[in-house]
């Protein structure tokens, strides 16, 4: 199983925001870089944004705000931190991909102008103080229905 590296401060921010929004969904985008061995390294997190809409089983981010935050992270890191994926929570649920998550990830892989070939979708399932984070990474288009479109990746903090 491949890995995704997440800084401890990012992991804390994810859990804090997940707790804050519970029992509603929340999420945002992940910034960092893809290492030479192909493993994503997440160094910063962008939250939902002030205009985001949080529901029990769905959340719509404030996309314009997130883009501005990504621009700031890019400048502040002298271009080292760029978009690597999305994250969101499944309150009282499992950190598995829903059909909508699969559709979203496919759409990101096709349309994201950042040119991320294999975007990451990090999902936190659980409740306050007890989040289980699982990364899902886009693999490619489905072939005769045999291949799953994404691989589960193990998360490691650093
Ligand atoms: Zn989901």
TrEMBL record:
Location of the MPN domain: 4-137
Q: Does the keyword Zinc apply?
A: yes
Q: What's the source species' lineage?
A: Bacteria, Pseudomonadati, Pseudomonadota, Betaproteobacteria, Rhodocyclales
Task: Select a single GO molecular function from the record's annotations and give it.
Answer: metal ion binding
Q: What InterPro entries does the entry give?
A: JAB_dom_prok, MPN
Q: What is this protein called?
A: MPN domain-containing protein
The cross-references to Gene3D superfamilies, in alphabetical order and at most eight, read:
Cytidine Deaminase, domain 2
Tell me, what is an example of a GO biological process annotation in this record? proteolysis
Cite the Pfam families for this sequence: Prok-JAB
Provide this UniProt record's keywords sorted from A to Z: Hydrolase, Metal-binding, Metalloprotease, Protease, Zinc
């Amino acid at each position: 199983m491949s890995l995704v590296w997440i800084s401890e401060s990012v992991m804390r921010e994810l859990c804090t925001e997940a707790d804050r929004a519970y029992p509603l969904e929340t999420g945002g985008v992940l910034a960092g870089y893809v290492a030479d061995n192909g493993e994503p390294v997440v160094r910063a997190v962008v939250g939902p944004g002030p205009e985001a809409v949080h529901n029990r089983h769905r959340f719509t981010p404030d996309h314009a705000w997130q883009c501005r935050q990504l621009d700031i992270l890019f400048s502040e890191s002298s271009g080292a931190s760029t978009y690597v994926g999305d994250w969101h929570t499944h309150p009282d649920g499992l950190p598995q991909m829903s059909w909508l998550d699969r559709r979203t990830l496919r759409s990101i892989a096709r349309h994201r102008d950042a040119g991320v070939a294999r975007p990451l979708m990090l999902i936190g399932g659980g409740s306050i103080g007890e989040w289980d984070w699982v990364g899902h990474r886009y693999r490619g288009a489905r072939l005769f229905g045999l291949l799953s479109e994404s691989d589960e990746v193990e998360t490691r903090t650093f």
